[in-house]
Amino acid sequence: MNEKVNVSEIFGSNVFNDTEMRARLPKSVYKELKKTIETGSELNPAIADVVANEMKEWAVEKGATHYTHWFQPLTGVTAEKHDAFISPTDDGKAILEFSGKELIKGEPDASSFPSGGLRATFEARGYTAWDCTSPAFIKETPNSTILCIPTAFCSYKGEALDKKTPLLRSMQALDIQAIRVLRALGNTTATKVTTSVGPEQEYFLIDKEKYLKRKDLIFTGRTLFGAMPPKGQEMDDHYFGSIKERIAGFMSELNVELWKLGITAKTQHNEVAPAQHELAPIYAQNNIATDHNQLVMETMKRVADRRGLVCLLHEKPFAGINGSGKHNNWSMVTNDGQNLLDPGKTPHENTQFLMFLAAVIKAVDLHADLLRASAASPGNDHRLGANEAPPAIISMFLGEQLDDVLKQLDTKGEATSSKQGEQLVSGVHTLPDFMKDATDRNRTSPFAFTGNKFEFRMVGSTQSISDPNVVLNTIVADVLADLADELEKTDNVELFLHDWIKTTVSEHKRVIFNGNGYSEDWVKMAEQRGLPNLRSMVDAIPAFGTEKAVKMFERHGVYTKTELESRQEIMYEQYAKTINIEALAMIDIAKKQIVPAVIKYQGELADSINTIRTAADVDTSVQATLLGEVAENLKALYSAIGQLEKVTAEAEAKEEGAEQARFYHDVVFEAMGEVRKPADALEMLVAKEDWPFPSYGDLIFEV
Ligand code: ADP
Ligand code: MG
């Protein structure tokens, strides 16, 4: 155990990265490929053969026998189909080959992926195209070594069938508009603006043996039953607590695997809930960060499995304790070295920063519904608005310093000062003195400014971070596009900007909120301010179909109307299917496991009364009372199961779409709650050894 790891040696060792490319490719080929990667120009097919061959040589040296076009269909997870490098020769043998064509283009028969009506099942053609801006890598497991080529996945007609194509389109849109704005401001050096993203990933680890006894976890990823143990998270003793050896072993192995993949796994700690943890990498370019986050989730699951653990990525595996999310840290950076969201020490003097800040504020206010919808998932419905994650209302937290600058702009027409951080006073002489940040944090805000980036905190832990970033990039690009139109017309940029920033802040300040986002008062205040409160996934989905959204996405070539319709269709379907599986699992577990266990326990109680009565004339009123309580709850449970069966059948009979999803939400989901109540009450009454599966206490405290 505890083998010494040479991090600098293993980091990126399974990636066909810049170092490998430079070392292996002929200089001219390397230069051309590099140009394509950096400028986003089209790839010259003539060099593809050379790149493919060198990539194959490298992969084969690493032990790879197969390659795959690795893509991200609308299921939200990744997909791969392996092809061997072998090519038969005339003498009955085989050589290893990989052509440029095979590198650039793939054609999986992928008709079984959700397309939301973009493609009828008989139109099976779909193409995967190499995204050369995200490096190829080797997925190495104890039993296989595969060269993975990150790709985008489109239909025969060029419609996006995946989560990557729109992301790349949105990055391009933001690049174009941000560069226009910078040019108008007199910047001549920047030629590209990219978004940088650092997603913090939360997850649970539980013991595999116990997991295998929980059919709810197996079928749905979350517990459908479970009484609260005597202790939950109220002591706050897990958050940042010392990490158990078994968990530390998992984290070490995970880190090594991720480092090999060039993923900068950096921070790890215990989270608020018992058995909950977090991993954060260092930020990377948007599409790479998105690929990496998929790999992080997949690797977590694999490493856990190897170690007799199970990694739960569901947004709410356990009721009553915190669920898991993903904080999407986002910023815009130029290739001349600027972070456009860096305020510097004196933000009131930093017009360029204030302009980009105002642009983000405007974008978030105008399209709060889209941001909310981009974080909608059946699992996330348990978190958003449930007093642990951000509320379902989108608001922005800017912190004291920026808030003050914007207030000055709003009330006086100009900002003349920036509040500064003060000396931290600890009262202990031996502790070093340092300056505090100018601003404290706010945990309850869904969209918070944290120093030099925004942190979108609504994203669910299972979700691909593609959707939220597509929305973020596009809504900001849209505001910048309008701004660039104006800037390019004006002859006094400075004066124009001064007014624009002030007006924009005044018009959109309603989205800024620095108070407690969990409070009921905020819900009321937000309503008065006219901010949308889309409580559930079903409420949020229509945001992708509004005229406003279609116009904006089409303007920037990110989604067509048809593509947006397909996304909504898939979301409704995903919601309905998820609740359907949960309802069926619940019925199954209740009928086949809980009811029989309770009846058995009833028998034991009754037997005990008889046995004791026969032996001696002593009091058996406790058994009798218990028997009565058990019988009452059993009756309630049985009737609730009947009701759930009835409404689930009704839901299944409905036509797929918005109305069916709504029914699952309003009726089936409610009926599930009614089954759970008496079942959880019974868990507290029935003897532990008679209960058919491990309890919450067993699952979260005995890892
Ligand atoms: P927190 O601010 O949440 O306490 P960190 O400072 O570690 O935690 O940052 C969280 C994440 O934000 C990390 O993934 C980090 O790399 C990322 N991050 C930092 N700066 C930027 C930036 N300019 N753009 C995008 N992500 C960033
Ligand atoms: Mg954070």
Number of domains: 3
Straight-line N-to-C gap: 19 Å
Radius of gyration: 28 Å
Small molecules in complex: adenosine-5'-diphosphate, magnesium ion
Mean pLDDT value: 93
Q: Sheet with the most strands?
A: 9 strands, mixed
Total number of helical segments?
22
The percentage of residues in β strands lies in 5-15%
Structural class: alpha+beta
Uncertain runs are none
Q: Which superfamily, in CATH terms, is the homologous superfamily of the largest domain?
A: Glutamine synthetase/guanido kinase, catalytic domain
Q: Could you say what the CATH architecture of the largest domain is?
A: 2-Layer Sandwich
The CATH C-level class name of the largest domain = Alpha Beta
| Overall geometric form | globular
Here the CATH topology of the largest domain equals Creatine Kinase, Chain A, domain 2
* Total beta-strand segments: 17
Helical content stands at: 40-55%
